[in-house]
């Protein structure tokens, strides 16, 4: 952990609080919009906690600091955060013109917008620790972590969407289970691929090419965003995370060591604001 031994306490609590506020936005929307949405949000929480428990035991690559509410060695708020990122990202991409099969790719890229600003600052607060020091690869964060973030969101979104457009019991009850199981299988499979199969010398290129191809696919399809009204939670989930990381990082000084983290945080924050800018034209017409 970085900084004073008692400094992380307030930052831990505020980070948890931010995530529970995000959950309140998502839960309110899900409650208003039917059983399918509520089950998707709850399945996302179970998925988030399960993937963290499984990944820690599969790779033994990182560990969490002590948050207020823990499930074994995983903070409950982390599982909730995964669900909120999934829920908000899918709501955003469903308002676009992207073909249905490509929306999980956009969902994964939206998650990376958060993680590029979050992870390197979070380890300086001691929220989690990769055990490689603060100079390793992306300022202490393994490049493979960004690969993992993309696939976590992609596989749950893909699994859920297989039958989600059916309005019968299959679409409502089976889709969350498929998101959960396909998500876990996909995450553990891609973890094993990058860790045990792909040679270490090719790790960086594998991550770079995968994420570049994902971005290229979305850009080639030239999606029009906000074709359908998007609930305000799709804005508030990334906004709250970005704002917290920037403010807490500036107050503590962690985001200025090195200064690149501040520039990256501001860049990802601006990208999120630009993506969601047209939302103001829709949200005043609807209750979110």
List the helices and strands and how they pair.
Blueprint: H1 8-32, H2 35-59, E1 63-64, E2 70-71, E3 74-75, H3 76-93, H4 103-125, E4 128-129, H5 143-161, H6 169-197, H7 203-221, H8 233-252, H9 260-276, H10 280-283
Antiparallel strand pairs: 1-4, 2-3
What report would you give on this structure?
With 288 residues, the protein is mainly α. The chain has one domain (8-283). Helices cover 69% and strands 3% of the residues. It contains 10 helices and 4 strands; from the N terminus they run H-H-E-E-E-H-H-E-H-H-H-H-H-H. It has helices at residues 8-32, 35-59, 76-93, 103-125, 143-161, 169-197, 203-221, 233-252, 260-276, 280-283, and strands spanning 63-64, 70-71, 74-75, 128-129. The strands form 2 sheets. Strands 1-4 form a two-stranded antiparallel sheet. Strands 2-3 form a two-stranded antiparallel sheet. Mean pLDDT is 92; it is low at 1-8 and 283-288.
DSSP, total strands:
4
The portion of residues forming beta strands comes to under 5%
Terminal Cα separation, in Å? 38 Å
Order of helices and strands: HHEEEHHEHHHHHH
On the 0 to 100 scale, the average pLDDT is 92
Biggest sheet strand line-up: 1-4
User: Biggest sheet, open or closed, and with what strands and sense?
Assistant: 2 strands, antiparallel
Secondary structure tally, helices: 10
The tally of structural domains comes to 1
Poorly predicted ranges (pLDDT <50, ≥5 residues)? 1-8, 283-288
Could you say which structural class the secondary elements and strand pairing correspond to?
mainly alpha
């Amino acid at each position: 952990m970085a900084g004073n031994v008692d400094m992380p306490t307030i930052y831990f609590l505020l980070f948890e609080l931010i995530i529970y506020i995000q959950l309140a936005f998502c839960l309110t929307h899900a409650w208003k919009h039917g059983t399918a949405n509520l089950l998707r949000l709850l399945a996302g929480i179970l998925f988030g906690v399960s993937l963290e428990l499984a990944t820690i035991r599969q790779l033994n690559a990182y560990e969490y600091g002590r948050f207020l509410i823990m499930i074994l060695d995983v903070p409950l708020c982390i599982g909730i955060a995964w669900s909120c990122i999934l829920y908000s990202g899918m709501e955003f991409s469903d308002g676009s013109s992207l073909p249905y099969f490509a929306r999980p790719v956009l969902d994964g890229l939206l998650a990376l917008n958060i993680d590029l600003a979050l992870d390197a600052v979070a380890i300086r607060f001691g929220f989690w620790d990769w055990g490689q020091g603060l100079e390793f690869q992306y300022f202490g964060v393994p490049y493979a972590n960004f690969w993992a973030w993309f696939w976590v969101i992609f596989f749950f979104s893909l699994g859920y969407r297989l039958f989600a457009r059916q309005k019968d019991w299959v679409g409502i009850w089976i889709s969350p289970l498929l998101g959960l199981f396909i998500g876990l299988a996909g995450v553990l499979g891609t973890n094993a691929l990058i860790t045990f199969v792909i040679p270490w010398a090719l790790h960086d290129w594998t991550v770079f090419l995968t994420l570049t191809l994902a971005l290229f696919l979305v850009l080639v399809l030239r999606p029009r965003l906000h074709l359908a009204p998007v609930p305000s939670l799709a804005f508030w989930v990334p906004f709250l995370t970005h704002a917290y990381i920037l403010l807490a990082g500036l107050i503590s000084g962690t985001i200025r060591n090195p200064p690149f983290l501040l520039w990256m945080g501001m860049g990802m924050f601006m990208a999120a604001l630009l993506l969601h800018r047209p939302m103001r034209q829709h949200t005043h017409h609807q209750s979110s």
